[in-house]
Design a protein that fits this description.
The complex is a heterodimer of chains A (222) and B (309). With 222 residues, chain A is α+β, with helices and mostly antiparallel strands. Chain A is built from seven helices and eleven strands. Classes of the chains: A alpha+beta (222), B mainly alpha (309).
């Protein structure tokens, strides 16, 4: 479905909606999933991102995204200098993710405090993105709705507990996706909701012993 | 939004509302936003567009690649004005936004970054000429948005999806429809303006030199703006185009899908792979792109040799 502001926008720093705005959004989602600007980032660029990214400011846009900037933030232009100030150490390399990978694909290895995470995603045109993998778990995160990402122990009832807490707040669930490493091990849940989630809801869920981490990924297109 | 121009116009007719109102109502229904909120966001978009034009006309230094920068300013100052100053303003404003885009400036992607020069150039130039109010300009943007949404649904607005006809062609069709409506054209004439624009841009490929959104993009935005005004002028004079507008859009989509991938924003064909284009890519340090371009060129030439003669 195409909305009015998909056509009249986005408001963005040039020059390319896929190679600049989409790249920035991918970095932004990664910092949201790890809970803030990472300490270190190793970023592999695939296909067209690697080939023509330099002239499109793709690298600057990705780093800007990791710093929490949105696609219309002019600080994207000198994000490398700002990354130094923010203590973000980063390194880019070219990679080949195979023929099936979208030409504008990127893979992140990021660390923040004791956390370490691998995220893979792609920029699919017009600034729209898709996160396809988090720590080896397949996901399909587009950022078009407020999204909760939870890594939890794979014990019975976790999904119903989390969705129940959300439902108590009167928030409507749009999609729920669960993937796990193996029976009784760990499960990654991505839950899209129709409205933004209050922060105290996260404090509540953080405290559960079976929750490893939980993050709020705000809507991207606002 | 709408799946066809016909659906949009029919809904407006049944509701007894104007075309921009029909867009407004549909957006309200789909997003839950109210009218004031939508109009405010459109007005904000216009401000960003206006500022980009202003900024672009003042640029007097090269872009990071050196391929563009200062062209809008030079055009505004030095064009001979063969068909009057308005024409020169139209061209220079389209180039201005794209030059801002090329240096990581702030633009509105209407409908994409690579075609962002067309709608502002046409709307602001016509506003000056015809004395439109800001509220009328918001209506014009609603029309433009409605047209772009239908094209995105039925065909494509992305160079990677359908070549430059899908980018600057869509932008020009959006602008032409907006002008035609604000100038008092009937719904039918608005449809004609879209068809008349697209018929003149069918088949246009996307072949960015060195993969950068600069050459030919800055100039294509200028010529697309001219196409938009030409189509509005013809539609308002009652020039009819016998192929219904939705069918013209479908043809654009079909041409885009059948277009060789080398001509869809990959920088592996067209102007991008000319000897001069490859030299520019090499000078910009895009070694892997140049390697691929050489490989593609060889393959293209050999297939031409074995093809029908």
């Amino acid at each position: 479905m195409t909305g009015l502001f998909d056509i009249l926008g986005p408001k963005m720093v040039g020059p390319s909606s896929s190679h600049t705005a989409g790249a920035c959004r991918l970095g932004y989602v990664v910092q949201a999933i790890i809970g803030g600007t990472p300490d270190t980032a190793k970023i592999g660029l695939h296909g067209s991102f690697a080939m023509t990214g330099e002239g499109h400011g793709t690298r600057k846009a990705i780093i800007g995204g990791l710093l929490g900037y949105r696609p219309d933030d002019v600080r994207l232009r000198d994000s490398f200098e700002r990354a130094d100030e923010a203590g973000l150490e980063f390194e880019f390399y070219e990679t080949d993710l195979g023929e099936d990978a979208h030409p504008n694909s990127v893979v992140f290895e990021v660390t923040r405090d004791a956390d370490r995470m691998t995220v893979r995603g792609c920029s699919i045109g017009g600034g729209r993105i898709r996160v396809q993998e988090i720590d080896g778990f397949p996901v399909d995160l587009k950022g078009t709705l407020p999204t909760i990402v939870v890594l939890a122990d794979d014990v019975p009832g976790t999904v119903s507990k989390i969705t129940g807490i959300i439902a108590e707040r009167g928030l409507n669930l749009a999609t729920v996706r669960v993937d796990r490493t193996g029976r009784g091990e760990r499960a990654l849940m991505t839950i899209e909701t129709d409205g933004e989630l209050p922060d105290d809801l996260f404090a509540n869920l953080h405290d559960r012993s079976w929750v490893h981490w939980i993050r709020n990924v705000h809507r991207l297109n606002v | 939004m709408f799946t066809s121009i016909a659906e949009w116009f029919e809904l407006a007719r049944q509701a007894g509302s104007s075309l921009p109102d029909a867009v407004l109502r549909r957006e309200m229904k789909e997003t839950g936003a109210d009218e004031a909120e939508i109009r405010r966001r459109v007005a904000e978009a216009l401000e960003v567009m206006r500022e980009a034009v202003r900024e672009g006309l003042a640029i007097d230094t090269p872009s990071p690649s050196g391929l563009t920068g200062g062209r809008a300013r030079r055009l505004a100052a030095e064009a001979p004005g063969l068909v009057g100053p308005t024409f020169t303003e139209l061209l220079s404003r389209a180039i201005a936004t794209l030059e801002v885009n090329a240096r990581m400036g702030l633009i509105m992607a209407t409908p994409t970054a690579g075609a962002a020069g067309v709608v502002p150039a046409v709307l602001f130039t016509m506003q000056e000429r015809r004395g439109w109010t800001e509220e009328q300009l918001v209506d014009a943007m609603l029309i433009a948005g409605g047209v772009g949404a239908v094209i995105a649904e039925r065909a494509s607005i992305a160079g990677a999806g359908g070549g430059c006809q899908a980018e600057t062609g869509s932008a020009a069709a959006m602008a032409a429809a907006a002008v035609t409506w604000l100038e008092g054209g009937s719904d039918e004439q608005v449809g004609q303006a879209i068809g008349l624009t697209l018929q003149g841009m069918l088949g246009l490929i996307c072949d960015p030199v060195a993969g950068l959104v600069e050459i030919p993009c800055v100039y294509r935005n200028a010529t697309a703006a001219v196409n938009a005004v030409a189509a509005a002028e013809m539609a308002l004079a009652g020039m009819d185009f016998p192929i219904p507008v939705d069918q013209v859009i479908d043809v654009m989509g079909e041409v885009g899908r059948k277009m060789d991938v080398r001509f869809r924003e990959t920088a592996l064909g067209g102007l991008a792979t000319t000897p001069a284009g490859q030299e520019i890519a090499a000078a910009a340090g895009m070694e892997r792109l140049v390697q691929l371009q050489r490989k593609g060129r060889t393959a293209g030439e050999s297939s031409a040799r074995i093809g029908p003669s």
